Structures are given as C-alpha cells and as structure tokens.
Amino acid sequence: MARVRVRAPGKINLVLHVGPPEASGYHDLVTVFQAVDVWETVTAEDALEFSLTVAGDVVLDEIPVDGNNLVLQAARAVASATGHTGSARLHIDKKVPVGGGMAGGSADAAAALVAVDALWQTNLSHDQMRSIAATLGSDVPFCLEGYTQVGRGRGHLLERVESEPFFWVAVPQPLHLSTPLVYQTLDNLRGELAPALPADPSQGLLDALVAGDAGALAGELVNDLAAPALSLAPQLQGVLDYGQQCGAVAGMISGSGPTCVFLTEDPDHQTHLLEKFLAEGHTAVRASSPVRGAHRSDREVPY
Ligand code: C5P
Question: Is 301 part of any domain?
Fold first, then answer.
C-alpha cells in the first residue's frame, strides 16, 4: 500500500478581460493568473473503491463529496485515460476559501491528477495531464502549471511570464457568488456593448511584474467581473474601502469573487494589513506570489 501527497496553489487574476459569450456558454478571456502560496493538499491512497473526505480551516459546507467533486472526476479521468482499473481513497486538506474566486476546487483537481498518476504509476506526460486538466475546468491547467501565466481561450491556454514576488492579503467573504451567474450578470450589464478583447495584457503590467513594482502593478489591475460581482453583492464595496483606508496599495475582487485581495508593499506591510483586517473581525490570509504549480509534497510512504 502506498500514499501520495500533492499540493497545488490557489490563484488570483491580476487582469481579467472578458469577451462576449460564445455559443458554448463560455467567454473568451485574456487574463494574467498568479499562483499564491495558499495551498490545497490532496492525499491519495490505494483502496478498493473511490472515496473522498475533506477537512480544513475554511468553511466546508458547500463542498460536494460525491461524483460532483472535481477530485473524484480527476481521478476517474486519469483511470479512463490510462486504462488503470484500481481506485483510490482521496482526502483534501483545504486552505483556499471555498467558492471564493481563488480556484480552490481547480487546485484540488490539479493536485488529484498529479497524486493519482503517481500513486498508480500511470506516468502521464505533462501534455496528457494538461489536456485532462482542461476537461475538468477552465482554471485547472493553471493550477497544474502555477507561477505567472497569461491565460487565453477559456483561461486554459497558458503562456508563462516572469514576475518578481508580490505580497497580498486575501479576505474571504461569508457569502457565495455563483461563477456562471457573475458571468451572466456581466453579459446583462453590457447588453450588446461587450468591448473587444485586447490581444495581450498591457506592457505596463508585464513591466511592473518584472520590476516587482507594487505601485506600478496597482495601476494595471483590471477585473471585468468586478462590476457584476459588486452588483450582486454590494457589501463587497465596504471591504474594498476598508482595505484602502488601511493603506493597501490596491484592492480588487478576486476572479468572480467574492474574495477580495489587497496588494501590499512588502512582507511587513502585508503583516500590518493582515492584522488590520483580523482586528476588524474579518477572516484574512496572507497570500504571496508567484509560486509553483501542483507538486508532490512528500515522498511515497510505505506502511
Ligand atoms: O470551467 P469552469 O467549470 O470553471 O467554469 C464555470 C462557469 O464559469 C462556466 O460554466 C461558465 O458559466 C463560466 N465561465 C465562462 N467563461 C470562462 C470560464 C468560465 O463563462 N472562460
């Protein structure tokens, strides 16, 4: 018997440009993802049938532990792609806020792909793993790759860009925003007026990343999903305002929300802002970027 442990990062979108809806229901994106050191950990063990448990210090109520969970879907996708007939007992240890726009479920799926491939010794190539990841969800390929990547298509076509470290505070919210509803609200707000997607992220953004210049990065952050998220949950404005009052370099809604993320100058400023949010009774977590994608966080342990 063997056990494999893999961790994968949550993400923030530094820019998220959303095009008009496609016939598929998806929207073409030009986004820049950055992986943050808020980790999901998936453990996979040999077992006679598939099972899944979840633990963690985030609100766990909304997580399915049946076939709707991306971890089980990922494991079954590896089995079917490789012809492997075994099963696995899977466990998720969650740190990324659930349903918060930071890709926690996608990180679980990416970690599960790497974990069962190692457990079963099915030796998927990186390309095979990436293709399976794209079938599981738009953000899963990014959680596999990590670091800083321009995402196109549904967000699954990735191109790595360089970035110095940045220091964020993530403030999860006690409410849920459905991702499809946020996209649909954007379409409704825009009517026929969806702007054309830019071909690329701005040069100013890429320069700020390479320079590690938080002040310059602040002026480049864009999230087309912020307006629909705020129209569905206007109380998020108060959280953004509080971050600004406390001296954050910038604040934004993460992806489709509702988690709010705040950019700080450096690790000391990050600690200061974290304490300000905690003192006000918010949940808040330190999130530093960029970090690597899904990887083994153990050695295989025989027992
Ligand atoms: O790919 P994923 O399952 O994470 O997407 C969840 C939902 O988000 C989709 O069903 C769709 O409504 C919306 N979405 C979108 N365009 C994207 C990514 C997601 O409309 N590029």
Answer: no
